[in-house]
From TrEMBL:
Phosphagen kinase C-terminal domain boundaries: 24-255
Any Pfam family: ATP-gua_Ptrans
Protein name: Protein-arginine kinase
Activity regulation summary: Appears to be allosterically activated by the binding of pArg-containing polypeptides to the pArg-binding pocket localized in the C-terminal domain of McsB.
InterPro entries: Arg_Kinase, ATP-guanido_PTrfase, ATP-guanido_PTrfase_AS, ATP-guanido_PTrfase_cat, Gln_synth/guanido_kin_cat_dom
Any single Gene Ontology cellular-component annotation: extracellular space
UniProt-listed GO biological process terms: phosphocreatine biosynthetic process
Enzyme class: transferase
Residues annotated to bind ATP: 27-31, 92, 126, 177-181, 208-213
Origin: domain of life: Bacteria
Extent of motif RDXXRA motif of the pArg binding pocket involved in allosteric regulation: 338-343
Length: 363
């Protein structure tokens, strides 16, 4: 399979689109945690109960179409190879927990992969909607439509005073986790993020890495999400998060402008050194690749680099992860083999872009 074919088949359709403020906001996500009445939570349920949940969803929701979303295909985790599950994690379609403890886990996916519904993770149901750029309200509307559609066929575990009942007490209430993935290199370079993160935490929000709780902020990518789900409406939670995100966007743009004005040559040197590393390296580890990709994306956004599309960097942030590298290579790779394959894939992708640009110029 050629690299272009692999990219076309491997990348979620929404990943190649731009959204509002997409120079800084990579994606918006809404996740709703729900459980089914009269079934114990997955952490306490028997194998028979967990299988009962899967059977219920196979009979009730799998291969059915939802207005504006399309058909939902059910994937059982025990039918997938480890590399396939890792790819789903890297695309943010399932959680690491579902991939690791997956004897009775599954997910329902829409064709464009904007919608992913995890089954038998920490809760019976985790409805997730992903949109490019800053589209948190749109993601919330889509998740709410799905929630209403599903509730028409199953009875949720719900308490009039507490709201939706969930396995983890921090999700009780609305069961809503709203998050925004942001690229904040200038705030990191100007050492402002160390002050900003504690301030965000005091507002009832949390700052995590690219794959959520316990993960690193690779490539200066941070996930900002709510912590409080009880005592607030879904709209209020979204508005509180949006308020902070808009401030972060403003601060990041100001920091980029200040960096360029006061340190133009050092900044350009950093950007082009990173581009050179990506263009010519034969071995590159994931952390170094993420750092270089972040630098180059900043260079594109500041118009320092003019002949590379921002979307390529979005693609490479995903394609250079271990699962994708091994899927493209057709089998398991040792860590040193992945570093070689990662460098090769980046060079191939940048070369594809150069060829495309030359063809466009000739036309």
């Amino acid at each position: 399979m050629s690299l272009q074919q692999f990219i076309n088949q491997a990348m979620s359709a929404w990943m190649s689109k731009d959204g509002p403020d997409s120079d800084i906001v990579l994606s918006s996500r809404v996740r709703l945690a729900r459980n089914i009445e009269k079934y114990r939570f997955p952490t306490f349920a028997s194998n028979e109960e967990l299988q009962g949940i899967l059977s219920l969803f196979e009979e009730t929701f799998a291969d059915r179409s939802v207005d504006e979303i399309g058909k939902l295909e059910m994937l059982r985790m025990d039918d997938l190879q480890p590399i396939q599950k890792r790819v789903l994690v890297e695309k943010h379609l399932i959680s690491p927990n579902l991939a690791e403890d997956s004897s009775f886990g599954a997910c329902l996916l829409s064709e464009n992969e904007e919608v992913s519904i995890m089954l038998n993770e920490e809760d019976h149901i985790r409805i997730q909607c992903l949109y490019p750029g800053l589209q948190l309200k749109e993601a919330l509307k889509a998740a709410s439509r799905l929630d209403d559609w599903m509730e028409g066929s199953v009875d949720y575990a719900f308490d009039e005073q507490r709201g939706y009942l969930t396995s983890c007490p921090t999700n009780v209430g609305t069961g809503l986790r709203a998050s925004v993935m942001m690229h904040l290199p200038a705030l990191v370079l100007t050492q402002q993020m160390n002050r900003i993160i504690p301030a965000i935490n005091q507002l009832g929000l949390v700052v995590r890495g690219i794959y959520g709780e316990g993960s690193e902020a690779l490539g200066n990518i941070f996930q900002i999400s709510n912590q409080i789900t009880l005592g607030k409406s879904e709209d209020d939670i979204a508005e509180d998060l949006l308020s902070v995100v808009h401030q972060l966007i403003e601060k990041e743009r100001s920091a980029r402008e200040a960096l360029y004005k006061t340190s133009q040559v050092p900044l350009e040197d950093r950007v082009f050194r990173s581009l050179g590393t990506l263009t010519y390296s034969r071995i590159i580890e994931s952390k170094e690749a993420a750092k270089c990709l972040s630098d180059v994306r900043l260079g594109i956004d500041l118009n320092i680099i003019k002949d590379i599309s921002r979307n390529i960097l979005n693609e490479l942030m995903i394609l250079t992860q271990p699962g994708f590298l091994q899927q493209y290579s057709g089998g398991a790779l040792r860590p040193d083999e992945r570093d070689i394959r990662r460098a090769s894939l980046i060079r191939e992708r940048l070369n594809l872009e150069m060829v495309r640009r030359m063809e466009d110029d000739e036309e």
